[in-house]
Amino acid sequence: MLDKIKDLLAEIESLKAANAQEIEELRIKYLSKKGAVTALMNDFRSVPAEQKKEVGMRINELKTRAQEKINELKAAFETDDATSDDIDITRTAYPVQLGTRHPLTIVKNEIIDIFSRLGFSLAEGPEVEDDWHVFSSMNFADDHPARDMQDTFFVEAHPDVILRTHTSSVQSRVMEKQQPPIRVICPGRVYRNEAISARAHCFFHQLEGLYVDKDVSFTDLKQVLLLFAKEMFGNDTKIRLRPSYFPFTEPSAEMDISCNICGGKGCSFCKNTGWVEILGCGMVDPAVLELNGIDSSVYKGYAFGLGIERITNLKYSVKDLRMFSENDLRFLREFESAN
Ligand code: PHE
User: Fold this and answer.
1) pLDDT tens digits, residue range 53-108?
2) Which of 54, 182, 201, 242 is deepest in the core (most CB within 10 A)?
3) Which has more confidence, 336 or 107?
4) Could you tell me which of 225, 228, 256, 263 has the C-alpha nearest to residue 241?
């Protein structure tokens, strides 16, 4: 009898089941009225009196263990069941929240697209620059008062390592490597030490254009800029060039477009003038060509530089420059459809 109990215990210990039905079958096999454990209890009657105490204990142990084992199988099965319930492969996927392109990127890409169609290719340069590429190569003399036009950030108080104040530094980077014909646009971030307000920031984005070839005239410049303005702001857009000064262009001009917020009638954005300034431009000063290794008796060029924030403000009526760098999702999501 004790051997039988031992064998049955070993058998029960090794039980396995693949599903609820198999567990139920095992329960019936061992613990139901006609089950093996119950049968043993029936045999108990014929156990000699002196063995009854031990056999009784063993049978009780077996019964408890059999019940436990069935419960363990059920528990294991139920947890399995629960996890497989969690993964419902028929459910529709969670919606993925798509990001949006930053408004400045959208506008920058649009500008690149327009100039690419006119044959301009892309060029880039570093944001941490040296004095040569930002100023000297662009015809700013060492003590030139024009250096004060752009408040410079110095890196680690080193006078020669600066954050570029304009993308004109990329003009120099391109010319030192390449002879004409040159036709490039250079988008990038620039830095100026200015107090942050709705109208000024210590960093912003520009896009520089440079064209150097044999017969380049101011008329070419004007036509390219007119075409750009119409492509960017619509066919009715007018441009106006006002004489200006930059050390690296001669003659120089600032270009206004008819205010596209009020359609030229006058509003607070254009300060009731009907015009808004969007870029600086001019014929490349021959001195700049020479400083950058290009023969000014053979080649001429034009250049322009525009502020991407300014164009974006005009296009999307953004009135506060700070919006562009505050990562406010409510603002950024407004550009979802423009992506
Ligand atoms: N670099 C000038 C600025 O930052 C813009 C400019 C570029 C003007 C090219 C003329 C030609 O103000």
Assistant:
1) 888 888 888 889 989 988 888 887 676 555 556 777 888 888 887 788 999 999 99
2) 182
3) 107
4) 256
pLDDT of residue 84: 59
The pLDDT, as a whole number, for residue 80 is 54
Q: Which residue puts its alpha carbon closest to atom 10 of ligand 1?
A: 281
The alpha carbon of 176 is separated from its chain's Cα centroid by a whole number of angstroms, namely 32
Burial per residue of 298-319, b for 16 or more beta-carbon CB atoms within 10 angstroms, e otherwise = ebbbbbbbbbbbbbbbbbeebe
pTM of this structure: 0.72
> In angstroms, rounded to a whole number, what is the distance separating the alpha carbons of residues 319 and 299?
41
User: Whose C-alpha lies nearest to ligand 1, atom 5?
Assistant: 305
Ligand 1 atom at minimal distance to the Cα of residue 305: 7
Helix H, strand E, coil C: the string for 254-277 is: EEEEECCCCCCCCCCCCCCCCEEE
Nearest to 276 by CA among 292, 294, 263, 289: 263
Atom of ligand 1 nearest to the CA of 280: 8
The arithmetic mean of pLDDT across residues 303-329, rounded, is 92
Tokens of 297: 């008796």
Q: Ligand 1: which of 120, 150, 151, 166 to mutate, judged by most atoms within 8 Å of the beta carbon?
A: 166
Q: Which atom of ligand 1 is nearest to the CA of 138?
A: 1
Query: Residues enclosing ligand 1, CB less than 6 A?
Result: 166, 168, 208, 246, 249, 280-282, 303-305
Atom 6 (ligand 1) nearest CA: 305
pLDDT digits (tens, 9 = 90+) for 132-157: 999 999 999 888 765 665 688 888 77
The vertex-191 CA angle with 103 and 182, nearest 5°, equals: 80
> If one looks up domain 103-338 in CATH, what number appears?
3.30.930.10
Which one, of 219, 218, 185, lies nearest residue 308 by Cα? 185
pLDDT of residue 311: 94
Determine the distance separating the centroid of ligand 1 and the alpha carbon of 303, expressed in angstroms. Answer: 8
Answer whether 66's CB lies under 8 Å from 28's CB: no
